[in-house]
Amino acid sequence: MSDVIRVVLAEDQGMVRGAFAQLLDLEPDISVVATAADGDAALRAVREHRPDVLLTDIEMPGASGLDLAARLADEPDAPRVVVVTTFARSGYLRRALDHGVAGYVLKDAPIDRLADAVRRVHAGGRVIDPELAVAAWEGTDPMTDREREVLRLAAEGLPNAEIAARLHLAEGTVRNYLSTVIAKLGVRNRVEAARLATERGWL
Question: Which end of the chain is flanked by fewer CB atoms within 10 Å, N or C?
Answer without folding.
Answer: N
